[in-house]
Amino acid sequence: MKINLLCLSLMIILLANCSEKKPAADAPSAEGATISEESTSKVLDHHWEAFKANDLEATMADYTEESVLVTPDKTFKGLGEIRENFVFAFSMFPKDSSTLKLNKTVVHKDVGYIIWEATAPKLKLSFGTDTFIVQNGKIIRQTYAGVVAP
Question: Beta partners for 130?
Fold first, then answer.
């Protein structure tokens, strides 16, 4: 009987140590970056507002030199190249004559996803989507794709 209790106790200890442990909401990732849905949401909100306002400096504040932005036409690496992308984007969506609408936002840990549309003097974007990886309050990876209506 004592041996059975000892075996049962050992099994419980082993099972407890092998069970999946969930990280805390603000737990560091394997790379040491803090991951937080609250932080991801804040960065997405800031980024959208800065983009709508054509505020280049506020937009760039969301990135680091290690950030990467992938689009259908080019991959932009670092602040200089990402800035180049937004200078062009702001020329296509002038603040005073464009309408941008955010249709959906999804945040899960360090991943942010948005669906949006825009009407501008030179084009109509019927569907735009961006995916963001946010760590330590900065966009470290982003993808963009969109459908331009004729």
Answer: 114, 144
Fold classification of 33-149 is Nuclear Transport Factor 2; Chain: A, (3.10.450)
The one-letter amino acid at 76: F
Cα 128 to Cα 79, 101, 124, distances in angstroms: 22, 10, 10
C-alpha angle 68-76-57 in degrees, rounded to nearest 5: 85
pLDDT of residue 80: 98
Instruction: Enter the pTM of the model.
Output: 0.78
pLDDT in tens, 67-95: 999 999 999 999 999 999 999 999 999 99
- Where do the domains of the chain lie? 33-149
Angle at 94 between CA 90 and CA 42, to 5 degrees: 60
